[in-house]
Amino acid sequence: MSLELASDPEKRITGAHMLVANLALLGGIVTGLLQGLEHAGVEFPASEYFLRSYYHSVSMHGVLNVLVWTTFFIAGFLPFISARAYAMPLASPRLGWLTFWLMLAGLLIAAVPLAGDAATVMFTFYAPLRAHWAFYIGLTLVVVGTWLITLRLGLSHRAWRAGHPGARTPLAAFMSLVTMTMWTLASVGLAASMLFLLIPWSLGLVAGTDPLLARTLFWLTGHPIVYFWLLPAYVSWYTLVPRQAGGRLFSDPMARASFLLFLILSSPLGLHHQVTDPGIHEGWKLFQAFLTFAVFFPSLLTFFNVVASLEGAGRARGGKGLAAWFFRLPWGDPSLAAQLLAMLTFCAGGIGGLINASYNVNLVVHNTAYVVGHFHTTVGTAVTLTYMGISYWLVPHLAGRALWSRGMALAQAWMWFIGMLIFSTTLHELGLRGMPRRTMISQASYFQPEWSALLPWVGVGGTLLFVSGSLYLLNLLLTLTVSRAPAPAVPEFAISAGPAEDGPAILNRLRPWVVTAVIFLVIAYGPTLARLVATSRLNAPGFRVW
Amino acid sequence: MKPGATVYLYELAWILPSIAIPVGMLAALLVTAFGAGLHVPSVAGRIDPSKVTETAPFDQPGVVQTGPVSYEVRMIGQIWAFTPNEIRVPVGSTVTFVATSKDVIHGLFIPGANVNVMLIPGQISRVTARFDRAGEFFMACHEYCGIAHHTMGGKVIVEPRS
Q1: pLDDT tens by residue, A293-318
Q2: Chain A, chain B: beta-carbon pairs less than 8 Å apart
Q3: Active-site residue A437, yes or no?
Q4: What are B125's strand-pairing partners?
Q5: Given a cut of 60, is residue B81 above it in pLDDT?
Q6: How many angstroms separate the CA atoms of A525 and A519, rounded?
Q7: Domain with residues B49-159, CATH architecture
Q8: Is residue A540 part of a domain?
Q9: Fewer beta carbons within 10 angstroms: which end of chain A, N or C?
Q10: Are strands B135-140 and B93-101 parallel, antiparallel or unpaired?
Q11: How far is CA B122 from the centre of its chain?
Q12: How confident is the model at residue A8, as a pLDDT?
């Protein structure tokens, strides 16, 4: 009856993170359901004991899904996959546990005001909406925890290199380290905003703050954070999915090149979230729009490399034609099916992202439901459905028990895909018809009759997503409690079709790329931040208006 | 052809469009921004957020005619209303919105008129739009601003010329 978890310290650390991640997702899908139904015309069940208001719900939904579910999953998955790639235990399990407890402590500290309606400021916490100080301090501790993951992966990398002089870092470990390095660099904006602006201000040490400066620092981190969520999914797509599909990775050097491009290009483009902000020169907005187009390039490289790998797998299984091979892939494997459906959805999400970032086109879509439709295809599906697909082999492996039901897992993945198609398409369309995001729309004073026919579909899509998410969590729960069969083997790493050693040596180094990333960041943000700091007066008082 | 060369051609056939698409999109937005004049908000000055109602031009919010077919709307965003919240201009008018917030961040969004700008305490927002179609446009605050955010709206009534 004892879970196999006990046997390996890394498995226990990963298991602890996965538990928190999935509990957060449970909260995320419950709040999401209520919000979807609100749009469909069902009265929001506000109550003193649970969710005090629609906006309390939206704040919980955002924090639990995009901050907790993602971060804890990543904190479990990347060290786990790195240890497998190095084929050795990671440095200092003690540091791994310290990271977990620090992140959990931060989460709980932030959760008290969040659950108590004292931090109903959305996951973006734009000043001068002022949450309880514990919210900012708790989130800051979670960010500090993520830096410890970077430290641990860095120490492990060094230990591995000492034993393998001159050898190329295994791909999954290299990608994990690049992801965490990118995130650590990018998180300086958020950290600066918390330490110098929001925490002293929420504690009452300073009377006012600078909303535009806080917002700009937030988005300096707020765009790269989407790559922090996405790149672990790419780790799976590159290093595991080709093998799960029965093929090989098309190109190892191209995979490394795309990750290094993400390292330098993920951060210097957060201003595309602030296209409609006053106080920032339009020239810098245009410059960062251009860089946003540039970061599309490594995503296209990824698309090519992963699809070429899948095509190889499909043809090896007897698939033919220009596209018919796609249907020959082993769609009966829920882990693979979930990730293929995530990729399909991401095609729309990636193109939508380019539209959003297109400078003046942003005037049509900024802060409308279109954006909500967009990020539910990206973080809500490309990332989340991939993480679910990973969980379908990872959780059984951690527990030492087979997944309770493969059929239910397959149904779940398809239901998420279809539910999201309905949900996201409807929200895109509503956004184009002028419906704002983050709004209790049934009660809006400017409600437009032309929205009425579409809004029920938000409820239909949201309900399907809730049922799908519940089936996913139920399957994992039953795996832990009821399943008796032993766990199947963990997916092995995909072998590269061409030898990895063919790639230029620069693709195995990190330092020159980190330096380049810093230079890009300073060029893209330096003048704007310097001007904002120089003209800042810290004279906006805080408000609790919920 | 050797397999290696085929792969190289495939890679090239993918990479070239991958560069051409973003570059083409950039060209399109440069043309619309500088050729058609579709600009986004830029720097328009700072203001003390606790002295908005004492600072010109926000001490007298409202609509002011500034030319034969041009108007300026001096607007304050606050929880949970726009002042003014009903704007009347004749069709064909060019309207410049000069706006700010006196409390939290709000948004001024007029769908169909390309007005989409944040109202940030401490900053002055300035955007210009042309209203070429008679009729009613709705205004909405599109940034979460507290418990009654969904009640913060208004309208622009574009009247036919008599």
Answers
A1: 999 889 999 999 999 999 999 999 99
A2: 199
A3: yes
A4: B99
A5: yes
A6: 10
A7: Sandwich (2.60)
A8: no
A9: N
A10: unpaired
A11: 18
A12: 81
